[in-house]
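Figure caption, in words: inputs first, then the predicted bound structure.
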Amino acid sequence: MARYIFITGGVVSSLGKGLMAASLGALLQARGYSVRIRKLDPYLNVDPGTMSPYQHGEVYVTDDGAETDLDLGHYERFTGVPSLQSDNVTSGRIYQSIITKERRGDYLGATVQVIPHVTDAIQEFAQDQLDDVDFVLCEIGGTVGDIESLPFIEALRQLRNKVGRDNAISVHVTLVPFIAAAGELKTKPTQHSVRELTSLGIQPDILLCRCEQPLPDGERAKIAQFCNVRKEAVIPALDASNIYNVPLQYHKEGLDGEVLRAFGVTDAPEPDMSKWADVMERIENPEGEVIVGVVGKYVGLQDAYKSLQEALFHGGLANRVKVKVKWLDAELFEGDAPDLNELEPLHAILVPGGFGSRGSEGKIAAVRFARERQVPFFGICLGLHMACIEGLRSAGVAGASTTEFGETSEPVVGLITEWMTEEGIEKREEGGDLGGTMRLGAYPANLRSDSLIAKIYGTTEISERHRHRYEVNNAYTEKLEQDGLIFSGMSPDGLLPETIERPDHPWFIGVQYHPELKSKPFDPHPLFASFVAAAVKQSRLV
Ligand code: GLN
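Bound structure (glutamine present):
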């Protein structure tokens, strides 16, 4: 039977619970256990798909087409276990399913209530589709004390009773702030937060204390005493030099050992940390540096491009170089005589995914710069659309555009209304709901065997994750090919363009999917490894 680790946060938000869960998962794996990590989000949106990247950061897409919280990206990057729809739930989704059942009359006239109906549904989610996994880590979003997280904490309290106290433990992540005026770390917020959690029926087994300064022994003992936790289970969690150092750091502080001890496991093998040591060795000893410009719309908040940022970093690890990312607002490159000076020092240019027309002319200008100046170019999703529009405009079709930006006489990119899935044709109505109406999740593609992209992947059959409504219009592919842009990858039915490239350019690739979602520090995505390698070559030219 699976054992449960409940992870809650106290005092303030943004303590890095997601990273903590991901790192603990990686540590348990390093000891030979299998893990699944799940995120329980108390907000009322059904999924984060319709939330602004400014508010919520990136929407992370799973193989099975779920639009999920960006923490699932951390889970996957740290554990290598592909996330699934069944790993993320929100209050909104739970209420949606309960209300649907209520309308159908499934409750046979009973009063539908938070306890037991909502709390039962939360427990079902936590226990769903676990196969033979050894440990399930359930991270609850928000902070203990929030009104909206109450049903989740109650559900986990009940679940702990159901599965037995030996099979479920609680890890509480708190803050131990340094008060400069007193010159001291303060334990009181942690005490209050634990009191709040125990008043809800959960006594934490382990406290992970985020602090900016080393936690003195006396403070550790004080927290242990007031919070009813073993002193060794009060784990100091100092800010890490790099997120990929967190598993090594937490292991040194004894986190995984304490977690196993709380389950009564005393004979677990020592973890094999060589994978993480290798990642850190590469991070700490770069042999050079490249500058990659990302020309996008949400550049003010890098969480909006979290996986992209990480995938570029991984590409650097593959090449033993540091990738310095310059986040450039596409609107900088717009207007009648745009100043492209900021593009000059870049060793490579990437136009990422995005929605809506703002900044699009700047993105097109960046594509043109990269094409004409032979600077390595990578276009992802909307970036591929921009590369096709730029290609067609340069081939003389001045009005080339996408229907995403409004009506156009030359729709190089248009709304897709149907596509093949494993179950058959999937259709979508124009003007339908925004939530969950995209081509989402993993789809296969076939690559031309003589293409650069097939060489990079080392295969002609790939599967990558999608999240888009618009697609290159086949009516224009011939014209684009005549102009030197080839469609190197197509959906297996030959209908949907998946990848493009320019054979007359050192590295010019566009993809309709999001390769960044599958990159890992210990297994960098081949496209990012190759793109950064191209940037390294470029850096030797300029
Ligand atoms: N907005 C574009 C579409 O919906 C691209 C989406 C994306 O970049 N993820 O097709």
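The CA atoms of residues 393 and 400 lie 6 Å apart.
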